[in-house]
Design a protein that fits this description.
2 copies of one chain form a homodimer.
Chain A: H1 3-8, E1 11-15, H2 24-33, E2 35-37, H3 48-53, E3 56-59, H4 67-72, E4 78-81, H5 91-96, E5 100-102, H6 109-125, H7 127-135, H8 138-142, E6 155-159, H9 163-173, E7 178-182, E8 193-194, H10 197-203, E9 206-209, H11 223-229, E10 234-237, H12 246-254, E11 260-263, E12 282-284, H13 293-311
Parallel strand pairs in A: 1-2, 1-3, 3-4, 4-5, 6-7, 6-9, 7-8, 9-10, 10-11, 11-12
Helix pairs in contact in A: 6-9, 10-11
């Protein structure tokens, strides 16, 4: 492509931490469509002038996006995030400045949903724990491993019935599970029961979280919810660590007041409470529910679709509701 | 119940290993419907005469049932097994003596199916392996765990589309998977593709086994099948260990010629090939896919339904085809 044609491509500001590079497939594809301003790159240079006219920004999770950066970009109108969660972006400030925000939308939904289902079955059926039992050579010595509990046919609660929660619900229906959900608004056309938090906790044996972390959802799963969930209840968290009061959860698990947990996210990643390491009813995963080679390609498509929609004055594909 | 009424209840011979007792819920429920002859019990006594008239036998997995026992029971007409697999029962001898055999039928199907799905996602997404990574304290030291591979939308092969295979297929459809299957007969009314072994191995990325172990299915999954399956292929075995040529599988896994394996069963249980212990693409489980408290109750119902059908001259609920 000649310099002249290049100059006509829209500008995109890349907000990232220096240690998190754009995946190579992103860079090469994005460069065919946009001119990239990447201040975190050592080899990159850009003019003050280009910053003053840039209208769209791609924000790589987990790089924060706060007013200092927004102040540099007076023409910014659109932020596209590479993640489902957008708690690293100052949404209040974006709303104030009338900057639209789009997240990863449906890009990861199937990847995260299948991982959530596996975590749930793993906790209930003690799959990881029985694998450790075999690896430790205990099967010939101690005989049968203890029974787990069945998922199929059980009542499952889903907190947040967005892209991901809906994909989980669809899968669990095929396991004969009946689904109750908690959401800000009742969803049309779903055969599931909307319920309040404590009601859902009392009625369901398992409980999966797919909400975006905001001030409203911080420690949404607190002591009262865990008490209502009780000894047969299992919490699956693949949203954000701080949606659950982690200290309380550790206490409930250590004291056996809750049935188990499958956790892909934690309040202070990569630190995981060590008390959980020895519990056979807990499955710990290093924040990787979204991560497959397939989801990366899918993410690239959703990010590009949002950016192209913005530059064509069309509605964003997966806008975040900032109201 | 008076002795007289008791005497009118049909006799059931219990075939079991001394170390495997009938679960208490079985004993109490069965005793309301049948008189039990339990030679493995130390406290039990029975007459030669009762053996000569007993018409039905309950065979507790893994107790073998061969001609020595059948010789003791000249009036035997029906064997009801507590397992899906019936390789511990001499089926040829049963056929010769015109003894009908029923297995656990649908009792475990949902339990096994959900376990198989979890094994499959675990292997593809490296769930157990990433859990070990967290427990070993490696997350803060080494950063992100490597990507797994997505299940949703992939092509899955199922060997044996009986009770269990059908339940697995139903669940995987909700993951957007397309299903190919191998079976002795084409199934009516299923939206799945019937294929030959090598064709199915070449076309699918994962491969799950739910066949009964017989002379025909011994080492059904051999070197040729594994070669066709290739480096992206994953084998899930929750049927019987000997359906797979285990020595070959270990070689394929150790040399990286196959993508991974999720194994609930092994050729010489409880011995598991130690070469598999250190592989992160292998999930090992101690033959527990069927085992939940719920499945035990369900099994009791199926066993009783078969016995009652036999004594009422009705067709068995879950007969094994002995032809």
């Amino acid at each position: 492509m000649g310099n002249e044609e290049q100059d006509e491509l829209p500008l995109i500001f890349i907000q990232r931490l220096p240690q998190f590079n754009l995946p190579p497939i992103f860079t090469s594809r994005l460069q065919t469509l946009f001119r990239l301003i990447d201040p975190a790159s050592q080899s990159h240079s850009h003019s003050e002038e280009s910053l003053s006219v840039v209208r769209a920004l791609l924000c790589l999770d987990p790089a924060p996006l706060h007013s200092q950066t927004l102040d540099l970009l007076p023409s910014l109108q659109c932020v596209v995030a590479t993640s489902s969660g957008v708690d690293h972006i100052d949404l209040a400030e974006c709303r104030r400045r009338r900057i639209a925000v789009a997240n990863a939308g449906p890009a990861f939904a199937a990847d995260v949903a299948e991982y959530a289902v596996a975590l749930l079955i793993d906790v209930l059926r003690r799959l990881s724990a029985s694998h450790r039992y075999v690896r430790a050579g205990l099967w010939p010595l101690n005989g049968d491993y203890s029974l787990g509990s069945k998922l199929s046919g059980k009542r499952v609660g889903i907190v947040g019935l967005g892209y991901i929660g809906s994909e989980v619900a669809k899968r669990l229906q095929a396991f004969g599970c009946s689904i109750s959900y908690l959401s800000r608004k009742k969803k049309a056309h779903v055969p599931f029961l909307i319920m309040q938090m404590l009601a859902i906790s009392k009625m369901t044996v398992t409980f999966s979280l797919f909400v975006v972390l905001t001030n409203e959802t911080y420690h949404l799963i607190n002591k009262d919810v865990m008490t209502a969930l009780g000894k047969k209840g299992v919490i699956i968290n693949i949203a954000r660590g701080a949606v659950v009061d982690e200290k309380e959860l550790v206490q409930f698990l250590v004291q056996g007041h809750i049935g188990g947990a499958g956790l892909d996210v934690f309040e202070n990643e990569p630190d995981v409470p060590k008390e959980l390491f020895e519990l056979d009813n807990v499955v710990l995963s290093p924040h990787k529910a979204v991560a497959t080679p397939e989801s990366l390609e899918s993410l690239l498509e959703v990010n590009i679709a949002n950016l192209e929609a913005f530059f064509s004055n069309k509605p964003l594909l997966s806008p975040i509701d900032l109201e």
